Amino acid sequence: MIDLDKPLDSPEIPDSDFSAMPIGNYKGVIEEAYEEKSQSGNEMIHLVVRLKGNEAYDNRVLHHYLVFGLEHSLESAKRLMMALNQDITGMKAISAQTLIGLSCKVHTKHEEYNGETRDKIHYFVPVNLDLSELEPDEAKSNDVPF
Fold first, then answer.
1. Cβ-contact 46, 31 below 8 angstroms
2. What domain range is 128 assigned to?
3. Which helix (H) or strand (E) holds 38?
4. Which residues does 65 contact at the CB level (< 8 Å), separation at least 6?
5. Is residue 110 part of a domain?
6. Could you report the average pLDDT of every consecutive run of 10 residues in the chain (146 residues)?
7. What is the predicted pLDDT for the residue at 8?
8. Cα 88 to chain center, whole Å?
9. Which letter does DSSP use for residue 116 in this model?
């Protein structure tokens, strides 16, 4: 048994806030990247993005899945690599490991899952795009800016 310094219902211990973030653009770092198989057996890259420099949402983790073998897989891969400022000249393969540690910017959306609103990466914003230069409507738009 582990003895605790304080009772867990103590007002000194803050409650964790897992409520949905506002839809918008956030800076982050790709902390982990895995080459996996999707439930349907397609190859995919699973990205784990930790938000950084976002005050209330600093260190929140979001997951993104880039699934190959679908209708728009190559377009999605191209947009991702370009948003991460990677040279795509002649690129015919992507190694998940080369994405770890890259700074990124993401645009989020909400997704309903089992009656709960969850944050989801909608798309990656080019890292060389200054988010402050976006017009308010563009910053909140659900359209992919490519």
1. no
2. 25-137
3. none
4. 38, 44, 45, 46, 47
5. yes
6. 83 73 94 96 97 88 96 95 95 96 96 93 86 48 46
7. 82
8. 21
9. E
- Residue keyed to tokens 């490519």: 146
Q: What is the CATH number of the domain that holds 91?
A: 2.40.50
b/e map of 99-115 (b: 16 or more CB within 10 Å)? beebebbbbbeeeeeee
- Assess contact for 23 and 109: CB atoms under 8 A: yes
Closest CA relative to residue 146, chosen from 111, 107, 113, 91: 107
Q: Which residue has 């949402």 as its token pair?
A: 57
> CA angle at residue 26 from 137 to 106, to 5 degrees?
85
Residue 53 CB contacts under 8 Å (≥ 6 apart), including other chains: 27
Q: Give all strands (DSSP E) within 1-146, no chain letters.
A: 25-37, 43-51, 61-67, 103-113, 116-125
CA pseudo-torsion sign 108, 36, 33, 74: negative
Q: List the Cα angle 125/126/131 in 5-degree steps.
A: 65
Judge whether 91 lies within some domain.
yes
β-bridge partners, 108: 121
User: For the chain, first and last CA: distance in Å?
Assistant: 55
